Amino acid sequence: MSDRPARWSQGTVHPDMWTDPDDDPRECDGPSPDGERATLHEFLTNYRLTLRMKCEGLDAEQLARRTVPPSTMSLLGLVRHLAEVERDWRTWIGDGEPLPKLYGARDADFDEAVAEQAVVDAAYDDLEREQAATDAALAAYPDLGARAGRDRIAIRELLVHRIEEYARHCGHADLLRECLDGRVGQ
């Protein structure tokens, strides 16, 4: 007997997929985006949606559960971490002092991701607010080759780094979710 949940998928057309293509908010029947910025934004949007999909249908206890010991990662911790990272990216392009941490001490985004609905609700609010603020800050730079901040980071590099960060953590979310209830992603 194993404590591991049985693997399952909500997909019926392709049983190894997270959901059926007709139900997937990331699927687009239209043409691909025009231009580099629009393409980067579409990839980022899709990874943001993927993270949300991996968390759907779970309660506060499930979201906060650390399913891959000894890692301190949980799905809720990932949501909080990405809110913190969005805030940090604005520091990279700013010339002033770093913005204060949302959750305090190092790794508090993971360590304090506790199974309380208020913590879950606040994490999603924080993520949405920080994503919108970072999107707005980056929109002020129409030239992706422009450099900003004390380290003169290229805006293009920052956009690609954001995609990489979400993509990496969506991979973590796949494993966390599968260990939690057996649901597998595509």
From TrEMBL:
Pfam families: MST
SUPFAM superfamilies (alphabetical): DinB/YfiT-like putative metalloenzymes
Region (Disordered): 1-37
Ranges in coiled-coil conformation: none
Superkingdom of source: Bacteria
Name of the protein in its database record: Mini-circle protein
Organism: Streptomyces angustmyceticus
